[in-house]
Amino acid sequence: MKRHRLLLLAHFFPPLAGGGVHRVLSFVQRLPEHGWDCTVICAGERDYWVRDESLLARVPAGTEVIRVSGASPLAAWLRVRPEEAQGKRRGSTFAGLRALADWWLLPDPYVGWSNRAAKVARERIARGDIDAVLSTSPPDSAHLAALEALERSDSLREAHTAGGRVHLPDESRERLPFIADFRDPWVGLHWRTPPTSWHRARQAAMEKRVLERADLVLTASRAHLDALGRESGAKVRRTEHLPNGYEPEQVSSPASHPVPAAPGILLAAPEPFRIVFTGTLALMEDLGTLLEAVHEVLARLPEARRRLRVDLAGPYDMDLADRAEALGLTGIVRFLGARIHADSRALQRAADVLMLWKPHGDGFAAMVPGKTYEYLDSGRPVVALLPASDEVARLITRAKGCVLAPGDRDALARELETRYTTWKEHGRVPDARPEWLEEYARPRLAARLAGLLDRLIGTTGGAA
Questions:
Q1: Structural domain count, the chain
Q2: pLDDT tens, 58-110?
Q3: What string of DSSP letters covers 189-249?
Q4: Domain limits for position 450
């Protein structure tokens, strides 16, 4: 088998953590099995406020990793305030920084990193042996880095063809295939409201430029696939829906993956009724809905204070912990902070109820959190606060989970009370993992991506 090499531009890569890391990590892990080796251009090891050192062990030894450190406001802030790189922060501070960035940094606060990454990508392409380039977002500026590197490469090839004296290591190729991978829609247009019409036009022009240059556009959700180019008017050549999926795990027994405890807190005995959320807790309005619903349940069932626990595993704004304390939920609701990925999966499997939600707003309709598939893989009951028409809600309903309206505290309180009472009378609900989930396993998704790459290099001037 002839081997090829994919150049990936991904700001978030181990040891940085968060939901966006796992998609790229799965590419890097699985593509070599299908003849595609990987070179990754990413951020520095301390350029984000969430880290998971354990993920480094999953990066194959043959992966070429080129780190471009600094060059973003967050990276600079963490050098001044390193204590906020521990998976917790003051949300009010970051809200102000985001608002300033929306005015002055386009398309996003990582544009400084993008400029440096583009230069590094150009140099790596010039060294040869790159067969295709894939950029993944968020941040959307990763696509601009890839675009700049590719356009420079294209112009050098044109100069060479015209008789210039530019040395190109691989003269057989007219242009490198470009794949734009969107884990989420273009943030500055869909998730955030541009501060002025000028900002909206600039964001739309950037998105259009990326979409129209890309030989293939990947989206993690079908809703985003259907909406591609609607805001910017871009004409897209080829698209594919490639879900985030999940990494299959070999779990021999619950005892082999003990539930991680919160620091300084002993787990109750006997085992409590456990409500679990894993993932980033910042900017999540429905965490407040959960806190208020639990407060309501405990007001009606005071004895549940001994048996009910809410474990929130992930980076969080400290303002949220203050809110839980104000509701009298200290010791009931436990902010476990950022955990290694194996701990999060263990918590999911130990849950009696897994909570799922997304930020509110139409812009988030096309967002499918990666943990959705992990939740379903655990086989544990899922309660989601989502519009019934949402793509994630349809997945949860298909798996026989419960979907309630976002912000509906009373409905959530009734649901949790019913599940707690049933648990107290009959014990833990058996696992129920949907059989159809196999189509979302990452080995299958990586094989699909490899097939798409193989076809691309055969149709865009690359070596077959």
A1: 2
A2: 999 999 999 999 766 555 555 555 555 455 555 555 555 666 777 878 898 89
A3: HHTS--SSHHHHHHHHHHHHHHHHH-SEEEESSHHHHHHTTTTT----S-EEE----B---
A4: 4-245+441-457
